[in-house]
Amino acid sequence: MKQGDLVVRKSYGGDVLFRVATINQESAVLKGTDYRLLADAPIPDLSVVRDPEITGAAKQVRIKVNESLQRVQEQRDKQVLHNESPIRRAMNESQPYFEVPGKVLHLDGDGSYMKKSMQLYTQMRVPAHGLHVHESQMTDAVYRLLPQIKPDIIVITGHDGVLKARNRNDLQSLSSYKNSQNFVNAVHVAREYEKDKDGLIIVAGACQSHYEALLQSGANFASSPGRVLIHALDPVYVAIKASYTSIRETINLADVIHGTISGIDGVGGIETLGMYRVGLPKPKTLTDVKSTV
């Protein structure tokens, strides 16, 4: 076994596929390939996976990812058609218009997940600026980047989880979580920057994050109501939905939750206006304009 190998944990029935991040003497640090999970495990508990496509858990995740991508694409196409209808009726002609989807600032504690997220934003034609930032540095990054990027939507995510060394009944304490306090601090700064929840949409959290604390600190959408593992791209799906929902309408909570892989135990939120705008007329290439002065 070596760094970079794909493995599963025998004691957990091989439920999650990991990649070995580092190896110590008797244990290894693991990163989930699909879920935002950072874990450690004794080396004897690990089984190397040669072909991830034949692993039951991995196959099920791939199926869910493909289904979720299809739903997101379908929802986006429906939103675009819905958003353009009032303009078509008002103009009574096929006048070209232009789109202004909401701009996203995505801060991610995991570099590989950040790259996957940026690929999906590009695929869905969402303007996005992504940055790999360690969870402990996110508060400073939010403070510094919000005035520079001026996004409509900010995603604050990375790795999190319920700590093993905790009181079993103390899930309401932020000290029971790996990075929820860092996410809460970053959300506080973002909400101080823009107090209007419809002026800046905040999507925050990762696997098993303290959902209630994130909402109370000012997030519009957060994980994880059921303290479950969330898929690496779930925060991205929420941001895409926000980016392409019209400013005249609230983001459909049922649609956005259904669009994620983790579902209602993984992601929740509050009523929020969308960030999508259309404009007229569409800018033209001006080559024949005569000077008047």
TL;DR?
With 293 residues, the chain is an alpha/beta fold. It has helices spanning 56-91, 111-123, 138-149, 180-193, 211-216, 234-243, 253-259, and strands spanning 6-9, 18-23, 27-32, 38-42, 46-48, 98-100, 104-108, 128-132, 153-157, 201-204, 221-222, 268-269, 277-279. The chain contains seven helices and 13 strands.
Name the descriptors:
single chain, 293 residues, alpha/beta, SH3 type barrels, Rossmann fold, 2 domains, six-stranded mixed β-sheet, five-stranded antiparallel β-sheet, 7 helices, globular
Structure notes:
A hairpin with a 3-residue loop joins strand 2 (18-23) and strand 3 (27-32). The protein has 293 residues and is an alpha/beta fold. The model has no long low-confidence stretch (mean pLDDT 87). The relative contact order is 0.14. It starts with 5 loop residues before the first strand and ends in a 14-residue tail after the last strand. It is built from seven helices and 13 strands. The protein is globular. The chain folds into two domains: 6-54, SH3 type barrels; 64-279, Rossmann fold, CATH 3.40.50. It has a six-stranded mixed sheet with strand order 8-7-9-10-11-12, sandwiched between helices. Strands 4-3-2-1-5 form a five-stranded antiparallel sheet, with no helix packed on it. Helix 3 runs parallel beside helix 4 (180-193). Pfam families: Peptidase_U57. GO terms for molecular function: peptidase activity. One of its GO terms (biological process) is proteolysis. InterPro entries: Peptidase_U57 (IPR008764).
